[in-house]
Write a structure and sequence with these properties.
Elements: E1 13-18, H1 25-37, E2 42-45, H2 50-53, H3 63-74, E3 78-82, H4 90-95, H5 122-139, E4 145-149, H6 161-175, H7 178-185, H8 212-238, E5 246-250, H9 259-262, E6 268-272, H10 282-297, E7 301-305, H11 322-334, E8 337-342, H12 368-382, E9 395-398, H13 401-407, H14 419-433, E10 437-440, E11 451-454, H15 462-473, E12 478-480, H16 503-506, E13 508-513, E14 521-525, E15 536-539, E16 543-547, E17 551-557, E18 565-569, E19 575-578, E20 581-582, H17 584-597, E21 613-618, E22 621-626, E23 632-635, E24 640-642, E25 648-649, E26 652-655, E27 660-665
Length: 668
């Protein structure tokens, strides 16, 4: 099977989206020369070019693309050639308005933007396959093409009658009979029992709350329908080319698609990453997202898009400094990316993204920003040996799209217990310590991990529960966060003391979920005095637990739950349950204590990690990213070489303010 390794035999990939159709031909040669100067190795071409390649139905005009591909190949620039199906041409919507999507209020949307297609439209699917086939047949043998790029940021949801029919067919395949659907969904509630399949519609806007099992299955259906689109275009490509890898760009923790269910169909896992430079939490969120992508890939992945400076789609678009651009790029590499690509090569003077930054800004190549782009190209060339190396992770964090979807439906005890903030809060202490983390499914093979964390796993099906119990039985250590294992795979609340699948192993069970009033409640020592993790504060959420054989580490102090358990563990010390949201310091102490007890430590050569220093280890390479405005002196346990400069350091190394270094232990 084609893989990312096919592209990285000479080192890391560098480049970005290239849209030559927006420019006069005279600019194309200038672009290739500038790409060479910046050490660009690959560009993505054709993402939004459908109307130019096929200006009318069945009138294919490939000449301009021939010229572009020839020029790039002549300049030594490889091409990730895209199918242009993310933005159908105006003639398609005009010929068949039912190719356009319908929103949840039943209103048909219009063309004039992008992603204006219904995923289940037969006309759209037929035309998408046709243009993909023409592109593949035309350029499968072109020497510039090294990878295929299907669509772009697949994620369109539609609620039209065609989608309704497809959804019903999907449900029939899933459940078989209306009786089984009724039992799984619980349609006795609010008189929602269906007497025929035709009565089932997408979860359109309604007078009041929708059935959570209905909306959950529609999310699953949409993800599967979009995967069908990807597979259809991929298969057209595979009919003429079996040697080059095929990708489509993900969007991190995107709520519209279950990327884990897609991963097996994607030759190269690639992702678009746009951390907000105005958000101080952005680096940890970006690192977690990169770990998700590496975990989906089972190894190296590809950063398909990033911004060199400001984006154009936030309300207030704070730009990156050039140092921040470099950090964002090298962070992705540190967490397993085998390349860095940006959106886009040259800034667009027209259209909605005219103020989106680019590798070549409106002001041209003689600019501070473009000089930084050139320097990043040199840096990545120096890091050629990083390509293909692995990230060691002894800790896994459990994340599941269905659980995320179900947990954030309306009419739960609180809308303040959000999945991603919980995930990031539990991840942050490990990130700060430079400890490698994988992001896994409840059903993943967990046996190689010394510690598994499930910060908020509201929905857990029977297979996932059995897998986690099997991990514990084999000697693993599992820490569950609040409101976990509440519902089964159909979003049905599990009856009994919670967390129901684990209460017997834990030696404790919950009786009642207890959102807290505004403010904080104290947390103090439980059966061990003083508390081994210290005291702290709880906010937002609590649960009333009843212990049988469990040990209590923390109790609530004050409020309605005064004296009740807040953090408990099984007597064998392998299962832990946190029934609240503690302050960041307490959470950090507890998680690092678990890490230490499991014999997990960082593999980097630093004797100490200063505050404001981000550390990530990939293979033999240690990435140091300074987030402070002052230089940091970092003590080293061994002699190290700066891979980017060749200089040797011991017993310490100085990381410049806002700087990034990549170290490797010196040969002994």
């Amino acid at each position: 099977m084609p893989t990312l390794a096919d592209l990285t035999s000479r080192g890391l990939v560098y480049g970005g989206d290239y849209n030559p159709e927006q420019w006069e031909r005279a600019t194309w040669r200038e672009d290739v020369a500038a790409m060479q100067a910046a050490r660009v190795t690959m560009v993505t071409v054709g993402v939004f070019s459908w109307a130019l390649l096929e200006p009318e139905r069945d009138r294919f005009e490939p000449g301009w693309m021939d010229e572009v591909l020839d020029l790039l190949h002549e300049g030594g620039i490889a091409v990730d050639l895209a199918t242009p199906t993310a933005s159908p041409p105006p003639w398609l919507a005009t010929e068949d308005p039912q190719t356009l999507p319908v929103d949840a209020s039943g209103r048909r949307l219009h063309h004039g933007s992008r992603t204006h297609y219904c995923p289940t439209s037969p006309t759209y699917r037929e035309r998408a396959r046709a243009i993909t086939s023409r592109i593949a047949e035309r350029w499968a043998d072109h020497p510039a093409v090294v990878m295929w790029h299907v669509n772009n940021e697949l994620g369109t949801t539609c609620w039209c009658p065609r989608c309704a029919a497809s959804f019903r067919a999907w449900l029939q395949r899933r459940y078989g009979t209306l009786e089984r659907l009724a039992a799984s969904w619980g349609t006795a509630v609010w008189s929602q029992r269906y007497s025929s399949w035709e009565q089932i519609a997408p979860p359109l806007h309604a007078p009041y709350l929708l059935h959570p099992a209905h909306t959950l299955d529609y999310r699953r259906f949409v993800s599967d329908a979009l995967l069908e689109l990807y597979r259809a275009e991929r298969d057209e490509i595979r009919a003429v080319d079996t040697s080059r890898p095929v990708t489509t760009n993900f969007m991190g923790f995107f709520p519209g698609v279950d990327y884990r269910s897609w991963a097996g169909d994607i030759d190269v896992i690639s992702d678009d990453s746009y951390p907000d430079p105005a958000d101080p939490q952005a680096p940890v969120a970006a690192a977690l997202t990169h770990d998700l992508m590496r975990s989906l890939a089972g190894g190296p992945w590809l950063l398909m898009e990033q911004a060199t400076s400001a984006v154009s789609w936030r309300g207030h678009n704070v730009p990156k400094t050039t140092a921040r651009m470099r950090q964002d790029a090298l962070r992705a590499v540190a967490h397993g990316s085998d390349g860095v690509l940006s959106f886009q090569w040259r800034a667009s003077p027209t259209g909605p993204e005219r103020f989106h930054s680019a590798m070549v800004p409106h002001a041209g190549t003689e600019t501070r920003l473009h000089r930084a782009v050139q320097q990043l190209g040199r840096d990545l060339a120096s890091l050629a040996e990083v390509a293909g190396t692995e990230v060691q992770a002894d800790v896994a964090i459990v994340f599941d799209w269905s659980s995320w979807w179900a947990a954030e439906e309306p009419a739960t005890p609180t809308d303040r217990l959000r999945v991603l903030p919980q995930l990031r809060a539990w991840y942050r202490p490990l990130w700060e310590a430079g400890i490698g983390v994988d992001v896994v499914a409840p059903t993943s093979d967990l046996q190689r991990y010394r510690l598994v964390l499930a910060p908020q796993l509201y929905l857990l099906d029977d297979d996932g529960a059995a897998n986690l119990r099997g991990y514990l039985d084999a000697g693993g250590c599992l820490a569950l966060g609040p409101f976990s294992a509440v519902a089964d795979g159909h979003a049905r609340v599990r009856t009994g003391g919670f967390p129901v699948p684990f209460a017997d192993l834990l030696g404790a069970e919950g009786e009642e979920w207890w959102p807290l009033p505004d403010g904080t409640v104290g947390l103090v020592g439980g059966d061990h005095a003083p508390a081994p993790v210290g005291h702290g504060q709880a906010s937002v959420w609590a649960e009333r637990l009843r212990m049988t054989t469990a040990m209590c580490d923390l109790r609530f102090a004050g409020g309605d739950l005064d004296g009740e358990p807040a953090l408990v563990h099984s007597r064998d010390g392998r299962l832990h349950y946190l029934a609240t949201i503690p302050d960041a310091g307490l959470l950090r102490r507890w998680l690092l204590q678990l890490v230490d007890r499991r014999g997990i430590g960082p593999t980097h050569p630093l004797a100490r990690v200063p505050s404001d220093l981000e550390v990530a280890q990939r293979g033999p390479f240690t990435f140091l990213l300074n987030h402070s405005d002052a230089a940091l002196e970092v003590p080293l346990r061994s002699v190290c070489v700066d891979v980017l400069t060749g200089s040797t350091h011991h017993p310490h190394v100085t990381v410049p303010r806002s700087g990034t270094l990549v170290l490797r232990k010196a040969p002994s």
